[in-house]
Design a protein that fits this description.
Elements: E1 15-17, H1 26-39, E2 42-46, H2 52-86, E3 98-105, H3 118-146, H4 152-158, E4 164-172, E5 184-187, E6 193-198, E7 205-209, E8 212-215, E9 223-227, H5 229-234, E10 244-246, E11 254-262, E12 268-269, H6 273-277, H7 281-287, E13 295-296, H8 297-307, H9 313-321
Helix pairs in contact: 1-3, 2-3
Length: about 325
């Protein structure tokens, strides 16, 4: 049976006004971030330091690139998908999206991507630098809330070559049969912290909270942050990744730039010892002791790619079963 949409609509989606972190409202603002990480897995940032002018240009060039270089190819895919679905074929394992991926770290692939003009490459490079700084600021805010020393999460992600960082550029065009196909099927994100610049005119992103699908509200010049599986492990379950999805819509072409600040491929991921040792009685009952495995991030990603659209818990259990002693020094 389908889960109800927006059954939790009476709850207020967490929105963080980052300028308040520099005022007497810092404590209350940090409390909103803490609650969002513990109970939502998502929050939205305003006044985050990325200029409105840059965000507007990223949106303009991304939408222009789709129209010029990707729209015709997507129309061919859409026609085949709709034809199959209307004939009764199962298209539930198909996503109604047009995407490409820009890798920033450890080495950029911007120069290698076809069909991007010089201006788009420069705009994306500037945007990536700003998003990287914001991701690291968010990680330090999470450290502060968790009682971890500053820089702990960034170091946990580092591996031998630093973090893995890239941006998935997506378009979700109008779909005349939203009942047949999803924009993007429900999943949690495998990585660390995800920063999303989404269309403020066309909605569609939803998260699963307390058994109900809740809209992530589009807001002008906002950045949506969500917790990935790796942060769930490192925080020993205090913060949790949550299932989310994108709905298809009969009108509007939704733009999405999701930037993934993830551990390096060879980073060893495990619960922060301080968060295993200092669990309160209530948290220990909810999360268990050290219930999460120790693993190499690349090994987890290899498993995730085969089971992305399934529950995360069996992935964690599989990593436990496959675990061998891993050096952390």
């Amino acid at each position: 049976m389908a889960l109800p949409a927006n059954a939790a609509a009476s709850l207020s989606f967490p929105v963080i006004h980052m300028e308040k972190l520099e005022t007497g409202e810092r404590g209350a603002t940090m409390g909103v971030i803490r609650d969002a990480c513990e109970n939502w897995g998502f929050f939205e940032l305003l006044n985050h330091g990325i200029s409105a002018e840059l965000m507007d240009e990223v949106e303009r060039v991304s939408k222009a690139h789709y129209a010029a270089c990707r729209e015709e190819q997507f129309k061919e895919f859409a026609a085949k998908t709709l034809e199959a679905g209307e004939k009764g074929d199962d298209v539930k394992d198909v996503d109604w999206e047009s995407t490409f991926f820009v890798r920033h770290l450890p080495a950029s692939n911007l120069a290698d991507l076809p069909d991007l003009d010089h201006h788009y490459r420069q705009v994306m490079k500037e945007f990536a630098a700003e998003i990287e700084k914001l991701a690291e600021k968010v990680l330090d805010l999470l450290c502060e809330n968790l009682g971890l020393e500053q820089g702990y999460l960034k170091r946990a992600f580092a591996g031998s070559r630093g973090p893995t960082f890239g941006t998935k550029v997506s378009s979700y065009p109008p779909c005349p049969r939203p009942d047949l196909v999803a924009g993007l099927r429900a999943h949690t994100d495998a990585g660390g912290v995800i920063l999303l610049f989404q269309d403020d005119q066309v909605s569609g992103l939803q998260l699963l909270k307390d058994g109900a699908w809740v809209d992530v509200p589009p807001m002008r010049h906002a950045i949506v942050v969500n917790i990935g599986d790796q942060l769930e492990v490192i925080t020993n379950g205090r913060y949790k990744s949550v299932m989310h999805r994108v709905l298809t819509r009969p009108d509007g072409n939704r733009m999405s730039l999701a930037s993934f600040y993830n551990p390096g491929a060879d980073a060893v991921i495990f619960p922060a010892p301080a968060l295993v040792e200092e669990l309160s009685e209530e948290e220990a009952e909810r999360a268990g002791s050290a219930v999460y495995p120790r693993f190499v991030f690349e090994d987890y990603m290899n498993l995730y790619l085969r089971h992305k659209f399934e529950a995360k818990e069996p992935r964690f259990e599989a990593m436990k079963a496959d675990a061998a002693p891993i050096a952390t020094a």
